[in-house]
Design goal:
The structure holds two protein chains of two kinds. By secondary structure, chain A is mainly β. Chain A has one domain. Chain A has one helix and three strands. By secondary structure, chain B is of the alpha+beta class. Classes of the chains: A mainly beta, B alpha+beta. At the A-B interface, loops of A face loops of B.
């Protein structure tokens, strides 16, 4: 999804980037979690173009000391432009 | 209804940061929702009305108006200081079928596709692939919009095909705010769609070869290109080989295009007599700072589409540390003599991997390009017979008066019929130097001056040339356009002056046109834009 008003200078220049930097808390009985890409103003097609996942030492440590109950989620994604 | 958001801005820039350039307003149009307008033609015609409203507003305010798409051009050809319109969200595909075809059309209707201006090459390729079709050629990547491609003459290195504008068969242009300013243009010698189709898109039809050829590469100044009819072909595969070959052999291929009698052949790509086959694509990479006796060369051969074939996609793409690029620039500006060593150090990033063989569709082969930071590119078109001589002259200049932070490449394109196509020679060799953008320093001349010196040395050596409209050059060089195109440039200006009313002629001009002298208003002649009988 292009973003003509973007001021970024990185790989995502001119792209509508959605960034998520959060901690997900899951129950002891849950093995893992999924993240649903929803249609939104930044993602009108609801379909993915590019995903960047970043693993940090802090994230690994957090998961280890909480026995996997807290997972750091640091992602960037760009959606496809809607087809017309 | 289509809606347009207006954003007040101070400046605008190209994707490779060749500006910034001053600006008052950016306008972004979104199409009407499908619920209100389930019919694609209704959405398209609604967008025509919206664009005409924006043109009317610009005219009322005494402003200029110019559409842009992916802003990939490195020159300021896409820029307008008053109002710029982003058309990337205007990406309808309107199916055309047998009832739309002209009775004297030489084209197979299965191969004709009508796209709104903001469709990118990637989107168009995707649509065509769903029908088992492919576009005929593309640039080295796929992010440009179709309207931007044809306006500036985007090309690849398909030696017997041409550029993107060469597979366009019809153009819908909005030349002003009034109903009669919606015009659908085709050749009168090769009509594609009928008058009823033009009526469907609320346009009046003009079939006129000379007008069509002038409008093909219009530099964004014939009006707002709203829709483009293209001809595709059956889906095909490209088998790509990267080899290191002797310099003289590579240059002999460039100047002769005689692949059958060359010393170099690829064993898999020879005829029954062992003679080399003619490739679809031929490209030579030249590090002008290296004394090696070999060049890296890329060949592609056209194959029937057959599955399965190995996946050609590099799923994971890496890009250089942005800081590394900035460091490169800083070193280049302060210590230009280090540039050859820096280029050598980065050769694995700059050049394709030697002995690589991949197979893929055209769309897969010329895939997404990542943003690589501030960049420059100067690209000259010469007759392929002059390619070796031109390279020698430009490389000498680059070594003697530089070095500059970039390397050369040569690509080859068949002559275009467009009046202002830079691919004007029977086979045009585009000699280009691409690299990172630098600032003038005490030890390194500016890009503008380097561009001027390149023009000067080509003129001194009597090498006829053109320049890629979307690339960096000293566009203010006196008499440049006349030197490149002569009477063809005058014809183009006359057609433009006749097609556009006086106020629209000004509204659709920009600094680039003023600088090159192409915004001059010539005497009008209605026969130039007459709807001609089909012959």
């Amino acid at each position: 999804m292009p973003d003509p008003l973007s001021t970024r200078d990185d790989y995502y220049r001119d792209k509508m980037v959605i960034e998520k930097d959060t901690t997900i808390k899951i129950s002891v009985t849950s093995k893992d979690f999924t993240f649903l890409i929803k249609e939104s103003e930044e993602c009108p097609s609801g379909r993915l173009h590019t995903v960047e996942y970043r693993n940090t030492f802090g994230g690994v440590l957090l998961s280890a000391i909480t026995f996997g109950r807290k997972r750091k989620m640091k992602i960037k994604y760009v959606c496809m432009k809607p087809n017309n | 209804m289509a809606t347009t958001k207006t954003h007040h801005k101070d400046s605008w820039d190209t994707i490779h940061k060749n500006g910034p350039f001053p600006l008052k307003i950016i306008q972004i149009t979104n199409l009407a929702g499908e619920t209100k307008f389930p019919n694609k033609l209704d959405r398209y015609n609604d967008a025509t009305s919206e664009i005409q409203k924006l043109i009317r507003e610009a005219k009322t305010n005494g402003d200029g108006f110019r559409a842009y798409g992916s802003r990939w051009s490195l020159s300021d050809i896409a820029h307008q200081k008053d109002r710029m319109h982003y058309n990337g969200y205007m990406n309808l595909h309107i199916p055309v079928n047998a009832e739309d075809q002209h009775s004297q059309s030489p084209y197979d209707i299965e191969n004709l596709f009508y796209f709104q201006c903001g469709n990118t090459i990637k989107e168009i390729s995707h649509q065509l692939e769903e029908h088992g079709k492919s576009i005929m050629t593309s640039g080295a990547s796929n992010g440009q919009t179709i309207a931007g491609c044809i306006s500036t003459g985007v090309h690849g290195s398909a030696i017997d095909v041409g550029s993107i504008q060469d597979f366009v068969r019809g153009i819908h242009i909005i030349t002003g705010p009034n109903p009669e300013d919606s015009i659908y243009i085709e050749r009168n010698t090769k009509p594609a769609l009928n008058d009823a189709f033009a009526q469907k898109i609320n346009a009046r039809i003009i079939r006129n070869d000379e007008l069509f050829k002038a409008a093909l590469v219009s530099l964004g100044s014939f009006g707002f290109i709203h829709g483009v009819l293209i001809e595709g072909e059956d889906l095909f595969l490209l088998k790509r080989y990267v080899r290191k070959i002797d310099k003289q052999t590579a240059l002999q291929l460039a100047t002769t295009m005689d692949f059958a009698n060359s010393d170099f052949t690829i064993p898999e790509e020879v005829d029954q007599n062992g003679k080399g086959l003619r490739p679809f694509h031929y490209k030579v990479f030249i590090n002008q700072y290296s004394d090696e006796n070999e060049y890296v060369v890329e060949f592609m051969y056209k194959k029937n589409y057959e599955t399965p074939y190995p996946d050609p996609f590099p799923i994971i793409k890496q890009s250089l540390y942005k800081d590394l690029i900035y460091l490169f620039i800083k070193i280049a500006e302060k210590f230009p003599k280090k540039i050859p060593k820096l280029v050598k150090a980065l050769r694995k990033t700059i050049l394709p991997a030697v002995n690589e063989v991949t197979t893929g569709t055209l769309a897969e082969t010329f895939w997404d390009a990542g943003y690589q930071g501030p960049a420059f590119a100067c690209s000259f078109g010469v007759a392929h017979e002059d390619s070796e001589r031109t390279l020698e002259v430009l490389a000498k200049l680059t070594n003697d008066e530089g070095p500059f932070p970039g390397i050369f490449a040569m690509r080859f394109i068949k002559k275009s019929e467009a009046t202002l196509a830079f691919s004007k020679f029977p086979i045009t060799c585009m000699i280009e130097i691409d690299g990172v953008l630098w600032k003038e320093s005490r030890k390194l001349m500016s890009l503008e001056k380097y561009g001027r010196r390149m023009i000067e040395v080509l003129k001194e050596n009597n090498i006829p040339f053109t320049i890629h409209w979307g690339k960096n050059a000293d566009w203010a060089f006196p008499g440049l356009v006349d030197h490149m195109f002569g009477a063809e440039a005058t014809k183009w200006m006359k057609i433009r002056s006749t097609l556009l009313s006086e106020d629209m002629h000004t509204l659709f001009s920009n600094d680039f046109l003023d600088r090159t002298g192409l915004s001059k208003r010539e005497a009008t002649d209605d026969t130039l834009i007459a709807n001609l009988p089909i012959t």
